[in-house]
Design a protein that fits this description.
By secondary structure, this protein is an all-beta fold. It contains no helices and 10 strands.
């Protein structure tokens, strides 16, 4: 497997199926006030916070996009949309964040896939 962060901007092959967890995930806009309830999860060594956006939608967001002082605000626009994919499928990894890769598939669908489920395709 490539070192974390090294797949960003590269074509990848899915090495393990992934099914999106949420059908209607949380989204936050840069500068949006978010409510944190204190729940914390560490996934693959990265800290995630349970948050509620202005519309009342809740979900996990990476701690690195949350301001350090109350009232807490998103420091960038973020969507928790995941991308369902199958082993052997080719994806383009556009961004890597907290152990996940924001990917685009051959049909133009975008979403997060665990980075551990991807392997960079070597270019000859």
């Amino acid at each position: 497997m490539p070192k974390y962060g090294s797949i960003e901007g590269h074509n990848c092959s899915v090495v393990e199926n992934w099914v999106a967890t949420y059908s209607d995930p949380i989204q936050v806009a840069n500068g949006e006030t978010i409510e944190l309830d204190g729940r914390v999860d560490v996934w693959d060594g990265h800290t995630w916070l349970w948050a509620k956006n202005l519309e009342g939608k809740e979900g996990w967001i990476p701690d690195c996009i949350v301001s350090n002082e109350a009232p807490f605000k998103a420091t960038e626009t973020y969507s928790a949309m995941e991308l369902t994919c199958r082993k052997g499928q080719s994806l383009k990894a556009l961004r890597v964040l907290h152990g996940w890769a924001w990917c685009s598939d051959e049909n133009g669908k975008n979403g997060w896939v665990p980075e551990r489920n991807l392997h960079m395709i070597n270019r000859s």
